[in-house]
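Predict structure. Chain length: 453.
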Amino acid sequence: MSSEKFENGINFVNIKSAVSDRELRKLNNINSDYINYNCIKFVPASGAATRMFKDLYSYLENQEKTEFVETFLSNLENFAFYDDLQDTVNSVDFSMGDKEENYLINNIVKDGLSYGSLPKALIKIHDYGNVTTTPIDEHIYEGEQYLNDERIQLHFTIANDHEELFNTYIEEAIKDKSNVEVTYSFQKPETNTMAVDMENAPFVLNNGEVLYRPGGHGALLENLNDLDGDIIFIKNVDNVCHRSRIEDTLSSKKALASIGLEVKKQVDQYLMQLKTDEYNLEEIVQFLNETLNVTLKSEWTKEKAIQFLDRPLRVCGVVENAGEPGGGPFIVDNGEYLDLQICEKSEIDLSDPAKVEILNNSQYFNPVDLVCFVKDYEDNKYDLTKYVNEDRYFISEKSHNGRKLKALEHPGLWNGAMHHWNTLFVEVPSSTFNPIKTVNDLLRDGHQESVLV
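Prediction complete.
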């Protein structure tokens, strides 16, 4: 099966238009009713921080002082790990020449702090004077502000190699927080996928075994499916902000949950009506068309209405498109019907000028800010693995010991893995999106203290 997928290549998604203001769900009122449900915050946090420091690794290798490196070195004191770096290399004058700068960078990514081999979740990113924090700390703090005070639940997906580090850090982070529960899981080995060579033949190792690789973040659907919650908030580990700038984030989280709960209650009510044969099909179809943005090409029936209502619901925050790499919200033609989807650029046929125009004119971007409702109208948990579009997989080029290969990734967690969910898009402030892709991103406003003028 995997070899066939490699030979067929990526299946393009048939986008019909980019999501506009017309398809966005507007907020009527924000309330905290959602905290009466079992809420869990799910944080994909598996990766090491190596890519975050790739420019510094390049400098160590070729000694080329790029603009990126110049910016990094001239702003050393503005990084939360500055004091730790000083402690590591306290015999070095930070104002010295290239040799010393080389030594400093080496002590950040390799020796000393060894940040290049740590998980991104454990990199010190924010400085509050008397304390410095990591993404883990910020996710806990954020959860404390909008989840139920009596039981704040967070679940991280981590790499096996980082288990001891993670446990040690969490134990200290929540030692005085009896109301905070932190659990974790690993990406399941059975979700690994076969790699192939550039001719699409199985990639065979020197020992004769075929290479299998982790199946991308789409494999985390299994981890998400294992959580016993009513409402699950999803946010990437590197998307946090300085606490002085957190108000927009908190209000938007409450808004997404409020909107979702309001729509979820209406969905459940319609399903109960349909099951008891006391329903107004015209009213329900209007709801499917106007609220859930599902357009059926054939005639609506009771059975079709049940089919499209009785599935998981996700509320996705979107921000204005500022050219960031990643997915966007689109109206997609699925053959028998149209609905709302998050699509990656690689899923769009860039040889089709009409599709390129739709992509280039898209107003919004998906920052991976989701609130998911994963139980049906009878309070039974959906089996999320049944709502995946297996044809929305990804193929990427990688290497192993210097040999090129092709890797297969499962349908993305918020792309194909949630293809058969109902979707709502809500615009949230751009200030809620503060990814840390490179170390210099920590110099952006979102990661520095807000100074009131």
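Summary: The mean pLDDT is 92.
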